[in-house]
Amino acid sequence: MKARLLIADDDESIREALVERFGARGYAVRAVGDGGAALEALRGGVDAALLDLRMPVMDGQTVLERAHEEGVGAAIVVVTAHGDVDAAVAAMRAGAYDFVTKPFDARRLEATVARAAERSRLARRAASADAGERHEARWADPAMARVMETATRAAATNSTVLLLGESGVGKEVVARAIHAASERANEPFVAVNCAALTESLLESELFGHEKGAFTGADARRIGRLEAAHGGTLFLDEIGDTSPALQSKLLRVLQERRFERVGGSQPIEVDLRLVAATNRDLRAAVKAGDFREDLYYRLAVVDIEILPLRERRPIRRCSPRRSRRRSRAR
Hints:
Strand order of the largest sheet: 2-1-3-4-5
CATH class of the largest domain: Alpha Beta
Shape: globular
Helix content: 40-55%
Distance between the termini: 58 Å
Strand content: 15-25%
CATH architecture of the largest domain: 3-Layer(aba) Sandwich
């Protein structure tokens, strides 16, 4: 798969030259001309980015800080003016992978971008392998072993999964295990706690919004649905969503498309949805608090996770005790 590279620079001639250079070297390149568009592209998922610090709408330092706060996984290389050491140091402290200066040294530029893209690739691989090892080692408990067996089978499909269980039983851990074991493992895993936001904020968080969609929407923002394109979207505590939002989520599952808040342009999305709740959704359906059609869309595969008090760990003898028993025989 081609490494995804973002070029963020307000100089059109520089953007065009860099797109041509890195496109010829096998990168999938996207170019933007301002900081707002750069942050949006970073949220959408890239492997590496060349980020100019001086841009309109939002300067590169702010983009870098916001991306770091939001856990964007791209390795970001900042572009500074020649001799601007203070800016480079500030960028590195804010989480930049490296920096280059204008005018560019072509060889150093290409080598730096190549290292940045490779770092992102290795980080994804290590995270996936580490997650797999943790999940294999952790589940000595028979109940959790069965849960993980079901999760692994579900991961081999593209089915929507519904995780059921009390708060604190490890629903997000299981969701991440499903993602790590799936063909989408190298794509984004995006988690949203539906109970932590008001209805309007949750709608904007999921679907994004267009500039001017509401008071304070001074720039376009992509939502978590777009950010999870190609990967997995985990909606925790989905039982706490409003009927209006349930209707919109149902449409996304049916049509695999949506519009941003305040927008009319359909946006297609390819993702796996894993949802979780600590509520009894069957009872909520009977009570009219949760849409029945959405429930059956979510529960294509349903996995119940027992609370800790009901789990029975396997007792294993230590090697020393086992040797003593063997000698006793």
